[in-house]
Amino acid sequence: MPLPHMTIIQRAARNVSAAALSLLALASCAAQEDLASYPCPAVLPVRDASYMTKFEGQSQDLSDTLFEAKVDSILPAANCIYRNDEGKRSIVYDIRVQFLAQRGPKEREGAAKFEYFVAVTGSGGTPLARSVFPTEIPFENNATQAIVVEEVQPTIPLKEGENGDWYRIYIGFMLTEQELAYNRKNPR
Question: What is the share, in percent, of the chain residues with pLDDT greater than 70?
Fold first, then answer.
C-alpha cells in the first residue's frame, strides 16, 4: 500500500505487436534528450518474482499449466522529470513494463490473468511504497503467446540533497507461497 506522500498510478495497458514495439524503442531513443540531467532511479525486476507458472489446482505437473508469464523487459523511460512545486521536490517517472505470457495445456479462458507489484525503496533498501495492479494478457485468435505493455507512473518525493540515485523501483508478480517456492526450486 502506498504511503500518503508517495503515489504509484497505473496509467494504461495495451496489447502490442512486434512492429509497434520497434516503434516504441525508436521513440524512446528520441525522448532520452528530454530527460533531466539528474539521475533517475534504477528500475529492476525482482529475480524470484519476475516469472510465474500458474497451475490448475494444487498440481505442479506441467500438463496442468494454465499459463506461464514473465517480466519480459522494462522499456526505457518515456519521461523522468524532476519537479519543484512550491519548494517540494519530486521525481515523476513514466515506466513501461512488457509482460509475455504463454498459454498452457489447461488454459480455457483465453487470457492470462495475474497481479503484479511496483515497489519503491529508499536509502539502504528501505521499503517506502508498494502498489499492486491487476492485468490480463488475452490470447487473441487462439494464440499461444501474447504480450502486454503496462505503464506505471511513480511519484517519489525528494528530501534535501537527494536525487534518483537514492531510490530503486522493483517490479514483480504477486505470487502465492507455493508459486514462489516453485520459482526458487525451478530458477530461470
Answer: 80
Which residues neighbour 27 within 8 Å (Cβ) at sequence distance 6 or greater? 78
The alpha carbon of residue 102 and the mean position of all alpha carbons in its chain are separated, in whole angstroms, by 17
Residue ranges with strand state E in the chain: 7-15, 42-45, 51-55, 65-85, 88-103, 111-121, 127-138, 145-157, 168-173
For residue 88, pLDDT over 50 is answered with yes
User: Cell 505442479 sits at which residue?
Assistant: 60
Alpha carbon distance 105, 66 (integer Å): 6
User: Cα separation of 66 and 56, whole Å?
Assistant: 6
**pLDDT tens-digit readout, 3-45:** 333 444 444 444 443 334 333 343 343 344 333 478 999 999 9
Q: Which of 147, 152, 137, 141 is closest to 20 using CA atoms?
A: 147
Element (H, E) at 5: none
How far is it, in rounded angstroms, from Cα 188 to Cα 138? Answer: 24
Contacts 24+ apart (CB under 8 A), 32-36: 32/76, 34/79, 35/77, 35/79, 35/80, 36/80, 36/81, 36/82
